[in-house]
Amino acid sequence: MSSQRVVVIDYDGGNLASAARAVEEAARRARLPVTVEITNEPAAVRDADRIVLPGQGAFADCARGIEGVPGLRDAIMQAVEGGTPFLGICVGMQLMAERGLEHGETAGFGWIAGEIAPMEVPGLRLPQMGWNELSFPQAHPLTEGLGAQPHGYFVHSYALRGARPDDLLATTDYGGLVPAIVARGNVAGMQFHVEKSQTVGLRILANFLRWTPGVVPG
Q: Cβ distance 87 to 189 under 8 Å?
């Protein structure tokens, strides 16, 4: 089996080293040959076998970080349109939506229907911070083998609103159902930090490295 080249996108908007280490550890445990590179070079993104986009902070800031690297957004769009599997983490997942409402209205990639809006959780603290259980409305290769009552580690005050039901692979309950994993075509995203979610996160990353997606987003 030839080695996969996984690119972790560097745009000053995420915990890059932790994400890269988690991908490497997931590959090691699954005995998958993988080379992980942290980069913001558009050519490297276009040539990658798989793309990981971490993110933390505000939607608008992360979107501006990507736009601030000449050619980077175009390279991401071209790679995904060409069928390259893409994984967004936390704000990286939020950027997959049509728009974000944090610090004004900002356009997203538009791969997943809906918008990133403030969470409405009367009586609960924001951000949602810590471990929360995942529920799965449908089966998918990315969520195989997670065991009973899997938990992810969340840190967020904004969440996806208006998603298509067929895009939702997992939800969590925090004052109501919150989208936790979304996927469409060859793109997928996790609202929680897979790189901090221990065994569950590593299994999801291994599933991503094995994933052979179907149709690209339309």
A: yes
Residue 112 C-beta-side C-alpha neighbours within 13 Å: 33
β-bridge mates for residue 156, sequence order: 128
Q: Which residues are within 8 A (CB) of 27 and not within 5 positions of it... i.e. 6 or more apart?
A: 33, 34, 36, 205, 206, 209
pTM of the model as a whole: 0.94
The answer for residues whose C-beta is within 8 angstroms of residue 82's C-beta and 6 or more apart is: 46, 216
Residues in the chain, overall count? 218
Residues 6+ apart with CB under 8 A from 161: 114, 115, 116, 117
Catalytic residues: 90, 193, 195
Nearest partner of 112 among 65, 76, 56, 162, judged by Cα: 162
pLDDT tens track for 88-146? 999 999 999 999 998 889 999 999 999 999 999 988 999 999 999 999 999 999 999 99
